[in-house]
Amino acid sequence: MELQGSCHCEKVKFKVKSNTPVPFMYCYCSICRKLAGGGGYSINIMDSLEVQGMEYVKIYRGIHEKNVPKEQQDECGNRRHFCGECSAMLWAYDPQWSQWCYPFASAIDTELPVAKRPVCIMLKYKAKWAPVPTEADAFDEYPDKSIEDWHKHNKLWQE
C-alpha cells in the first residue's frame, strides 16, 4: 500500500510503500513519549521511503538511561527525523535495520486502516498520566512479535 505523508508546514513530503500499514503498536518509552507531541506514545509504520524537501529534515538521536552520569550515557541507534522548520516528527530509521524506515503514523496523510487490538510497548517507562487502552496487548518492553509478524499473524500484510 502506498502511503503519503508530510510535516505540518508541508516543506517535507514523503511517500512510502508499506506492507504493514496498520498503526497498532503504541510505544511509551521516554524518547518516543517526549518526541510524539503529547500523546504519551508514538506509533510507527514500516517500510521504504521517498522524500521531497530533504534539505529541511533534521535528525535527533535520543539518549538511553538519562539518569546515569553523562560519560556513561550512550545514544540510541534509532535516528528520529523531523522537519527543521515546523518540528513535526516524520520517521525513525536505524542503520542496524537499513532496509526499513518507520514513519510516524501522525505524519501520514493517507487514510490508515484501524487496528482491532492495539499493542502497547515499553510500559515500564510510561508516564503515569498516559492512558493505556484496556483492550490492548501490553508489554513492559518489546513485544513477542515484530511489526511484520503482527501484520502477517492478523492477516493484514499487504503486498
From TrEMBL:
Domain CENP-V/GFA per the UniProt entry, residue ranges: 3-140
Pfam families in alphabetical order: GFA
Superkingdom in the source lineage: Eukaryota
Keywords tagged on the record: Lyase, Metal-binding, Zinc
GO molecular function, one term: metal ion binding
Cited InterPro entries: CENP-V/GFA, Mss4-like_sf
Keyword Cell cycle: no
Protein name: 11214_t:CDS:1
